[in-house]
Amino acid sequence: MSLKILDTCVNCDVCEPACPNKAISLGEEFYVIDPALCTECVGHHDEPQCVVVCPVECIITDPANVETPEQLDLKYRHLMAKESAA
């Protein structure tokens, strides 16, 4: 699954630099996660770094973007291949 930031986000700015895939950006009111880039840190870390650093615990799995660990790994490999080609 991709992750999702809830509207309880306080815009503390700690999650964005923690994301190895650059999936987090500032939205209109609070930070948002691009599901096309989020791998829940699969391939980079053992657990999602945004969740680890979030002081208000406002990051959850996104039920609208359900993915298996295998799908997350495939997405990670695709993103890394794309980054290498750039």
Structure characterization notes:
This protein is an alpha+beta fold and 86 residues long. Helix content is 30%, strand content 14%. The protein is built from three helices and four strands; from the N terminus they run E-H-E-E-H-E-H. The strands form two sheets. A two-stranded antiparallel ribbon has the order 1-4. A hairpin with a 4-residue loop joins strand 2 and strand 3. The longest helix has 17 residues, at 69-85.
Provide the helix percentage: 25-40%
- In terms of DSSP E residues, the strand content is 5-15%
Number of helices: 3
Count the beta strands: 4
Strand order of the largest sheet: 1-4
Would you kindly provide a brief summary of this structure?
With 86 residues, this protein is an alpha+beta fold. It has helices at 15-18, 49-53, 69-85; strands spanning 3-5, 24-26, 31-33, 59-61.
Features:
86 residues; alpha+beta; two-stranded antiparallel sheet; two-stranded antiparallel ribbon; 30% helix; globular
